[in-house]
Structure to design on (264 residues):
């Protein structure tokens, strides 16, 4: 089944690796033109080389950009519009979690977490909304975490910031109704990443395979599907919510946690 995005233009922040890069691949495979950004020039270059090999005919644009830098994001948005003449989908995917308990979290840590989780979305939304509202299928889709509704005490600052982002997403979905721009999000559980790969390399028992190692982690955490998610799984959920297939969906979430969600 097609996502009905051929000829459309999508923007992915944090698109150089992981879920972001997996999302870029899905979008290009469906015929969309894609712009993505990342903070690391090295990772950005690696992603460009990979995409060129996979999609030699693909139309894309990239920029080294810190989404917390308003001026850089505004320049990125302007350049994307100049390149493609339209923007239909914005997918916000930036910001890792902070591991710390209440007593371990300093005042500045709380501020930093809110800034990262909030302004990594606010800056792109402000920069791209003038272009999105010109589209007849405009949408914003945010990558959020299950922590937004199921907080963890060892990630207290991130959990609070994620809850705030969920609230913001719902508020934007109401406000942007008048611009005909839908706003949704996904709630992530534990997904394979470079961070997990680094931990795997440092494992005590080097004879244990990646599948065995990650399954043990999933079982220990109580994930019903007994494995970590693969980047392409949340990527497909993101593209669905962004696409016209979800045209009657706004202010909503898709849980991508392998059944770890304990809430209805």
């Amino acid at each position: 089944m097609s996502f009905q995005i051929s000829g459309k233009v999508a923007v992915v922040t944090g698109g150089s690796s992981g879920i972001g890069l997996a999302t870029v691949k899905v979008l290009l495979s469906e015929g969309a033109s894609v712009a993505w950004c990342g903070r690391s020039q090295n990772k950005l270059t690696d992603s460009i080389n990979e995409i060129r090999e996979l999609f030699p005919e693909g139309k894309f644009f990239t920029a080294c950009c810190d989404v917390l830098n308003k001026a850089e994001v505004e320049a990125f948005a302007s350049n994307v519009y100049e390149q493609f003449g339209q923007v239909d989908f914005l997918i916000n995917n930036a910001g890792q979690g902070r591991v710390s308990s209440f007593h371990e979290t300093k005042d500045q840590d709380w501020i930093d977490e809110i800034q990262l989780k909030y302004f990594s979305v606010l800056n792109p939304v402000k920069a791209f909304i003038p272009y999105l509202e010109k589209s007849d299928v405009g949408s914003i889709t945010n990558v959020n975490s299950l922590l937004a509704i199921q907080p963890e005490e060892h990630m207290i600052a991130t959990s609070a910031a994620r809850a705030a982002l969920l609230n913001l997403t719902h508020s934007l979905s109401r406000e942007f109704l008048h611009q005909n721009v839908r706003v949704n999000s996904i709630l992530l559980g534990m997904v394979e990443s470079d961070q997990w790969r680094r931990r795997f390399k440092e494992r005590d028992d080097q004879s244990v395979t990646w599948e065995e190692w990650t399954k043990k982690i999933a079982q220990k955490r109580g994930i019903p599907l007994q494995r970590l998610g693969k980047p392409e799984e949340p990527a497909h959920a993101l593209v669905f919510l962004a696409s016209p297939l979800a045209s009657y969906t706004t202010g909503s979430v898709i849980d991508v946690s392998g059944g770890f969600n304990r809430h209805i």
Observations:
- Residues 192-228 form one domain.
- Helices lie at 18-29, 41-54, 70-84, 107-132, 156-175, 194-201, 210-221, 232-242.
